[in-house]
Amino acid sequence: MIHDADMVVTTVDDALQRGDDILVLVGSEVMLLSPVSSEIVRVCAGGLSVGELGEHLVTVFGPPPDDHTVADQTRLMIDRLREAGVVHVTSVSGV
Amino acid sequence: MPWRSGLAFRVVFVSTHNTTCGVFAERLMRPTLAASGIEAWAIRVTSVGLEGAPGEYIDPGAEPLLRELGGNPGGFRSRILDHEIIDDADLILTMTAAERDAVVILYPRARRRAFTLIEYARLNALIYPIAPLREHPLMLADGRNQAHLSPGDDILDPLGKDHEFYSDVARAIHTNVIQLSEAWIAMAPARAPHRDPLGVAMLLDAGADAEVVAIDAFGVAVDVHCTGDGGRALARRLREAWSRTLRPDDALPSPSPVVIEAIVHDEPTQVRVARARGALGGDTTGDVMHALAGAVTVRAIDQRAGEVIMLHAAGLAMPDGRVVAFVAASGTGKTTLSRTLGTSFGYVSDETVVIDLDGTVTAYPKPLSVIRAEHRLKRQLSPDSEGLLPAPQNLRLGRIVLLQRDASVGAPVVQDVPILAGMAELAAQVSYLPRLEEPLRSVARVIESTGGLQRVTYAEASDLARLMPAFAGDPE
């Protein structure tokens, strides 16, 4: 379970940015990220809390579509990036 | 970046219950590899289950069959798949497509490393990538649709079935495991640079009649020690096929050469003994020439990891030295292109284009590896006998072009490719990319210095000849 206070940190081995898009190297895999994922990689380079990241994404891209809450959508994105090895999430609460 | 050697290729067999199929695969592959002189550390083979409890014994119905096929069930205890195992694996092989899909759903990161055993064996035979084994899964994932899997290609769990079913399953696994092991032998990782400073160690093992063929593989000295009753004929054929890469007799390489022993012998026992000590062996020169093409190239790639960009590409040079590197997956037209355009442009390589970070290119005019439709092996043809032009001096990169063959197009279609999308596509065709300093940025700098990536969609290789000057950077 990801909490608002947990810290998200980008963990890629190399990144290449052209315009708003980012290409990342994680282990031996190279991935071209979507605009939202690229933004997450950029702003989490030095670490950012899940709550702050959600607010930042709303500022840049607007509120999530349909019935999704900001928190749910942010956690979904973080989960996908974490699974791909692009970010690491550190639990601040220790839970 | 300092050179590191000896990275193991880690294979994990995944089945639903880790008590039958996975055990067969693990315990049959290990002795097959060992019999070919591949040490257990070099290709690490394990098995795990998707379900069940850890610590279970091998299924009683499987044990006698495993022994019968030469596997050792001793000490086996089941394990369950987890994140750590997935992250540690270079290749994940399941028995059924449903198991493969389950792995990918549970661990999306494994998507390009997960295959069924039959799917991977089939792709490997079709595509036969010449690259370090750790890079094969990503290369083969791009050609996955060529496997044409059907539900009948699943190897089903025999739990609860009769002895005949067990036996069929065991033999299906054994056949595919042997096929893969055979293909991996030539390209298995070496623990350390296999060098022979005095040039005698292998001769002592192989017999004093070994004949040495001295090759320069893009700056790496490789000595092939040809032995057996067909050793002299092999050496002669090698010198013909590798004519443009031979080192002069009086050249003393520094560092000392990488040594590969190759044996051709009528007597299977001689071949078996030589293979057990790590030699490449067979009963015909064609078999061994085929294996050597991979072995020499991969040993050289291993040696130059982190120093240069090594593209799986065909390279053709303009008279002034500008090289166009045509990148394509193995088995999709690079050699045909080299053979066709190489009579008009300098032949750089049909397999590996080596680029320094300043854009300088090193030629690797190896034999052309030509697929014979009726044969599982590729013929190794000398660029001299094929009438290919030698590459000029002072080679430098003119352009990297992504090749896409489509028999339905008329005239070739050329498109500029955005750098990030192009590099995402290119990455699987770059050996040891992560070992480069600033890997993505280094490759991007070289690409952008040539004006960016292009893609060409074409029907016939000969149609590309007139495009060469434009690819190399001449104004159209």
Notable traits:
heterodimer, A: 95 residues, alpha+beta, 3-stranded antiparallel beta sheet, 3 helices, 37% helix, globular, B: 476 residues, alpha/beta, Rossmann fold, 10-stranded mixed beta sheet, 4-stranded parallel beta sheet, 20 strands
Write structural notes for this entry:
Chain A has 3 helices and 6 strands, in the order ββββαβααβ. By secondary structure, chain A is of the alpha+beta class. Chain A has one domain. In chain A, the strands form 2 sheets. A 3-stranded antiparallel beta sheet of chain A has the order 5-1-6. In chain A, a hairpin with a 2-residue loop joins β2 and β3. Chain B has 3 domains: 177 residues, Response regulator (Rossmann fold, 3-Layer(aba) Sandwich); 104 residues, no CATH class; 163 residues, Rossmann fold (3-Layer(aba) Sandwich). Helix content of chain B is 32%, strand content 23%. In chain B, β9 and β10 form a beta hairpin. In chain B, α1 runs parallel beside α7 and α5 packs parallel to α7. Chain B starts with 8 loop residues before the first strand and ends in a 5-residue tail after the last helix. The N terminus of chain B is likely disordered. The chains are: A alpha+beta (95), B alpha/beta (476). At the A-B interface, β2, β3 and β4 of A face α13 and α14 of B.
